[in-house]
Amino acid sequence: MSAPFGRRLADAVAARGPLCVGIDPHPPLLAAWGLTDDPDGLARFTDAVVDALAGSVAVLKPQLAFYERHGSRGLAVLEDAVARARAAGALVLLDAKRGDIGSTMDAYGDYLRPEHPLSVDAMTVSPYLGPGSLQPAVDTARQQGGGLFVLARTSNPDAGTLQHALVGGRSVAQVVVDTVRGWNTPGWVIGDPLPAVRDVAGRLGPATGSFGVVVGATLREMDLDLDGLSGPILAPGLGAQGGSVADLRRLFGSDRAVVPTVSRDVLAAGPDPAALRVAADRWTAELAG
Length: 289
Ligand SMILES: O=C(O)c1cc(=O)[nH]c(=O)n1[C@@H]1O[C@H](COP(=O)(O)O)[C@@H](O)[C@H]1O
Description:
Belongs to the OMP decarboxylase family. Type 2 subfamily. This protein is an alpha/beta fold.
């Protein structure tokens, strides 16, 4: 088994800064790069991003949908790119947003196994079949040293329609956060009372948990209690969706283990590898400032 994902993420962030760059080869972006919307264009795009950034950013986050739409040849492109990205030192977070009943969730969790053709360090998952439905993937993550990021309070404008709904006095998003907090506490199982808060600051450090939440950088205000999460917060919505580094500070303060993720704002700088690096470095510098 690899070292736990939370530990590996903390090491990567310490060495490279917290930036995650999303690899989202959507058709207008392929066209803007002068590439065809087919597996060949997809491979050129993906290889360029991996070659430019896998040696310098902490996390790369390929969006599975953009590979699946090209069928088996698209998945082959991704398998090759993921292996090269990991070999170059980047952690790979597969943006799959999967969630299903136990036996199927078990199969989705296989992305975290080293023998999977598309083996990754972590994946995004959706909790809307109930937090307990994700347990098989939690078990696999624990066995294999993988990580999960659970959708809690997403960056899209109508996210609150469901995520603000109240369940026993807590919002659905808060139930998700509290569940993930429990996963980061060994020995806790779904249904038990919540464990005592052990790491109020939730800082990245040796004790950082491998289970994170997704909370958009586009929120008008922080409407979640994230104290004691003891795991990372993936924060999408920067750049193209309007979020800024100032929004990150306003929403999360400076003590939380935030992994800001940017796709289009960096990718638009391509295909020149140097320009891609400059765009990513600009975010890294602003995050450090
Ligand atoms: O899980 C995600 O990464 C994600 C969660 C969320 O709340 N909002 C969100 O935009 N994303 C992903 O982030 C990527 C878009 O990033 P931008 O191009 O930077 O806006 C897409 O792959 C989305 O699926």
